[in-house]
Amino acid sequence: MIIRVALAEAVRRFDNSETPQLDAQLLLMDVLNCNRTYLYTWPDKELTEAQYEAFMQRVEARCEGQPIAHLLGFREFWSLQLEVNASTLIPRPDTEHLVETALSLVTDPVAKVLELGTGTGAIALALASERPNWQIDAVERSADALALAMRNRDRHDLKQVSLWQSDWFESVTSQDYQLIVSNPPYIDATDPHLNQGDVRFEPHSALVAEDEGFADLFHIILTATTHLCAGGWLILEHGAEQGKTLRNYFAENGYERVNTARDYANLERVTYAQWNKLARSS
Ligand SMILES: C[S@@+](CC[C@H](N)C(=O)[O-])C[C@H]1O[C@@H](n2cnc3c(N)ncnc32)[C@H](O)[C@@H]1O
Fold first, then answer.
1. CB-based contacts of 120, cutoff 8 Å, min separation 6
2. pLDDT digits over 171-196, tens only?
3. At what angle do helices 20-32 and 49-63 cross, to 10 degrees?
4. Do both 254 and 118 map to the same domain?
5. Which end of the chain is least crowded, N or C, by CB within 10 Å?
6. Residue 51 · residue 34 · CB < 8 Å
7. 282 domain residue, yes or no
8. Domain shared by 180 and 91, yes or no
């Protein structure tokens, strides 16, 4: 079996994928441990039996719906290659809007930052890679996801990120964060999207929240007031339909300069606001 024919066979079988060509190339690059140029340069190169078998195993798993990121074991986010697994969310390009918003709102070279629900560590590590003098704390409830985030931090040698296990703010004592960020679970348990695509293979604990998806968002907005310094920002990623409710909730709870940023599809995606009082006592 030669490269060109193996790829064509995979593409034919990926008729449910939006990116069949890319999926096939990524899986074969992984098996052959090569880059895309190699596939284009040597289309007639013969695969060994073991290589072909390994490739077809991955093709089979992909046909069953398994995310490409899980089959490869990594995903690119910001400029970082991050290990991923089934313990948490695969980082999404949309979340880069949250990172961009954070970098534009807080321009101090030195700042104290908290991320809640860090998963792979994507947001905290992206911020750390851009702002080497920020002190970044990041918490996560899942022990497996926390271990994953620690491996990603160590691989990229981003020592200024401190990671520990916490149920949201429960084990967070500081009350002087200039920036708190989170992409918490925000999908309603009855949302039909949970039965489609990659999310079928991601844990509900990373995706689903009570109160029509608002429970964790509301909890964070309320409780962040005891952990932000005066002038500190809270930035939250959320579902496209949740922006208005969140803006109202921020305003009702005493935040100012409430605003929402849109994603690449022009959908409301990231809502942020400033806390201009002293931290409330907990
Ligand atoms: C939507 S994922 C976001 C992961 C990562 N920050 C990202 O943007 O790719 C939400 C994360 O919050 C974590 N999480 C859920 N409930 C939590 C809680 N009560 N306390 C801390 N983390 C929680 C989940 O385990 C998951 O890793």
1. 75, 77, 82, 83, 84, 88, 89, 90, 91, 145, 148, 149, 152
2. 999 999 999 999 999 999 999 999 98
3. 140
4. yes
5. C
6. no
7. no
8. yes
Atom 9 in ligand 1: residue holding the nearest Cα: 91
pLDDT score for 282: 60
- Residues 6 or more apart from 276 whose CB is under 8 A from it? 230, 231, 256
Residues with CB under 6 A from ligand 1: 88-89, 91, 95, 116-120, 122-123, 139-142, 145, 167-168, 183-185, 205-206
Given the CA of residue 182, which atom of ligand 1 is nearest to it?
6
**Residue of the nearest CA to atom 8 in ligand 1?**
183
Closest CA to 90 of 242, 239, 200, 213: 200
Indicate which residue's Cα is closest to atom 25 of ligand 1. 206
Cα gap 18→77, rounded to integer Å:
20
What pLDDT score does 18 carry? 87
Q: How many domains does the chain have?
A: 2
Residue listed under structure tokens 């030669």 = 2
Phi, psi angles (nearest 5°) of residue 262: -100, 160
pTM above 0.85, yes or no: yes
The domain that holds 27 is classified in CATH as 1.10.8.10
Residue 39 parent element (H or E): helix 36-41
Residue nearest atom 4 of ligand 1, based on CA coordinates: 119
- 181 phi and psi angles, rounded to 5 deg: -130, 150
Q: What is the CATH number of the domain that holds 165?
A: 3.40.50.150
